[in-house]
Amino acid sequence: MPESTPGTGAPRVVPLPIVLVGPMGAGKSRVGARLAASVGAPFVDTDQRIVERYGPIDEIFAREGEEYFRIIEREVVAEALREEAIVSLGGGAVLDADTRDDLASVPVVWLQVSAEAVAPRLSGGTRPLLADGGLDRWIRIRDERRPLYEQVAGLTIDTSRRSVARIVDRITEWAGARA
Q: DSSP character for 44?
């Protein structure tokens, strides 16, 4: 059920799409699903869409390599950005210049997370870029992509110690002010 604007009972109006970016483990999928439910919009997780169409991402990396993965990721992201939805992008989607150009015209939220907070979130995963190097590799990837996240984001939220409900409220407030 859409969130109501205080005092009116009317659904809160936000511009769509709203896009979530950030490193692996920042909470994009979890926040995105809750945000979509809150505003009454569909949720599109581009990594999940890739899995549905092409198979597990770690298998795509192993079978075809990162370059091929980035090509199909770009296609899926471009499609998702045309939808009236809450869209969660894979951590590396911002590496594509065309994607960054597309993001310039939509509300983008950068979900940040500290290394300490992300460590338990990543344990036991199958993320191909973390297969060698674990948390140290995650830190390097996050730091390399930081300027790109900064470039595309209109709002930055640290998810390390903030509840999903508070994050959703902040995004909804910010996006609602843009409507």
A: E
Which tokens sit at 149? 């996240």
Residue identified by tokens 């903030």 is 162
Are the C-beta atoms of residues 88 and 29 closer than 8 Å to each other? yes
Q: Give one DSSP letter per residue of 52-117, joined into a string.
A: HHH--HHHHHHHH-HHHHHHHHHHHHHHHTTSSSEEEPPTTGGGSHHHHHHHTTS-EEEEE--HHH
- Dump pLDDT digits (tens) for 9-54: 445 679 999 999 999 889 999 999 999 999 999 999 999 999 999 9
Q: Which amino acid is located at 140 in the chain?
A: R
What strand order describes the sheet that includes 108-112?
43-45, 86-88, 18-21, 108-112, 155-158
Q: What is the pTM of this model?
A: 0.88
Are 75 and 53 in contact by the 8 Å Cβ rule? The answer is no
Structure tokens at 177: 């002010």
Distance CA 148, CA 99 (A): 11
